[in-house]
Amino acid sequence: MSVPALRRLTAADVDAFRALRIEAMTAEPETFGTDIAEEREKSVEASAATLESTAVFGAWLDGELVGMAGFHRMKPLREQHKGTVWSMYVRSSARGHGLGGKLLRTVIEHARTEVEVLNLVVVSTNTAAVALYERHGFQRWGLEPRALKLDEGRYTTDGYYWLPLTPVEP
Ligand SMILES: CC(C)(COP(=O)(O)OP(=O)(O)OC[C@H]1O[C@@H](n2cnc3c(N)ncnc32)[C@H](O)[C@@H]1OP(=O)(O)O)[C@@H](O)C(=O)NCCC(=O)NCCS
């Protein structure tokens, strides 16, 4: 695999971003909190606004967006010291080469410039993602039963993880 180029996405990347979000939800419907029908309903303007108001990093391979990872800072005044990792995805053909790790480290480094705590939620059976997050120091502090309701009345159990970015008080 040639070396992918990583950079922050802007509103100009909205078409590639939307296409990769749809691909992610089609390929991995049980790993994302957003339903694909909801994703399809989002307007191009809303997606572009999301790219401007959050920080989404993309991995480009031969001109194609093949991976992404986003950072979102909490808005309420008393929660602005926290941020969340969202929309983490690497196309299956590009996996296993460290791209997910590179994207996650880019998000962590960006988060360090803005917040004290980085949070994320992951379906507990998603072993590849759980291993990736734990390898980067995220610690699980809780489990949410019946977190997402899938088809046929099946549910996910989601793990809640945090990564303190400043020394933790004793
Ligand atoms: C989770 C996900 C982003 C990981 O992406 P990735 O690019 O495969 O991640 P990495 O390559 O950095 O790490 C994955 C594995 O490859 C291994 N790896 C890392 N560098 C490698 C290299 N140069 N060569 C071969 N393997 C390598 C890692 O050790 C890791 O193995 P392990 O998990 O078995 O210990 C990807 O599987 C994915 O998109 N999954 C579906 C969407 C998803 O689950 N998103 C998260 C929602 S919360």
Descriptive keywords:
170 residues; Aminopeptidase; alpha+beta; 29% strand; binds coenzyme A; 5 helices; seven-stranded mixed β-sheet
Give a written overview of the molecule.
The structure is a single chain. With 170 residues, the chain is an alpha+beta fold. It has one domain (5-164): Aminopeptidase (3-Layer(aba) Sandwich). The chain is 31% helix and 29% strand. The chain is built from 5 helices and 7 strands, in the order E-H-H-H-E-E-E-H-E-H-E-E. It has helices spanning 14-27, 36-41, 44-53, 99-112, 127-135, and strands spanning 5-8, 55-61, 64-73, 82-90, 117-123, 139-144, 158-164. The chain has a 7-stranded mixed β-sheet with strand order 1-2-3-4-5-7-6, sandwiched between helices. A hairpin with a 2-residue loop joins strand 2 (55-61) and strand 3 (64-73). Helix 1 (14-27) packs across helix 3. It is globular. The model has no long low-confidence stretch (mean pLDDT 96). The chain binds coenzyme A. The site of coenzyme A (COA) has 18 residues, from strand 4, helix 4 and helix 5.
